[in-house]
Sequence to fold (306 residues):
Amino acid sequence: MIPKELFQQIRRIEITTSRLVTDVFAGAYHSVFKGRGMEFDEVREYIPGDDVRTIDWNVTARTGVPHVKKYVEERELTVMILVDASASCRFGSVKTLKSKLAAELAAVLALAAVRNNDKVGLLIFTGEVEQLIPPRKGLRHVLRIIREILFFAPKGKGTNLSVALEYLHRVTSRRAVVFVISDFLLNDSAPKRSRASGPAEDLRRSLSIANKRHDLVAVTLNDPREQALPDCGLVELEDAETGKVLLVDSGDAALRVRFSAQAGERLKERTRLFLSAGMDHIDISTDVPFADELVKFFMKRRRRFR
Fold:
């Protein structure tokens, strides 16, 4: 039984995201995510003006009348939404938690897909794959996806996107559009190895392989407190995934500068990671509406594919 409060959250997300999809995203989604190509439909008699390259010479020779092959766009897509449910995504310092923002983003992307008659599936991961909902069509299916993201109680706290991508390869038999919704924060407590075989390189390799098999898009979840530390005296900072606690003096101006510099370098490294994997990415933050960033992404991608 779904708690009343959660049902209201699902209903609110459905209403707000439905409006957003109707007003902004449905047409843009259709224009930037194409089907697998042109599929043979039928053979018909040649009409003056038809492209001679489409003439079916076998049928023409057999009937004695010129015939051409007719093709239609194979539009239907499979969309997979991968959602990071690790402990670091259950954080938010301004308007909303990153996990709740992930549910709203997934709702928009899923609704845009089903409005275009595409199938949508969900994969929730932490340090392992914790939930898989196979791709299907329909509004009821989208509501189930929203419910699972909001209601799901993950077992793990850590993050391992590589494991999730490997699992995706095993359960998908055709090319898909894959949205990975995550904060992409690497666990600094991982064993120290050489740069050529470290966590970032392992992830880059996994992303590159996945992007060759699928149309991979990273949707990054960010929060202002991850980029800048406020001046509020002594504070305890806890790593949500490892439980490690650090006492810092946020009143130290030099410390705040170092914190911001390290955060900036982490964002640059993340961008370099996506570029090296050859994939698109969308930066989303908990303190501003995400609609504008999605619109920018669709416009940029549309211009690139013209």
User: Anything to note?
Assistant: The first helix runs from residue 4 to 32. Helices lie at 4-32, 57-63, 98-115, 139-151, 161-171, 199-213, 253-277, 291-304. The radius of gyration is 23 Å.
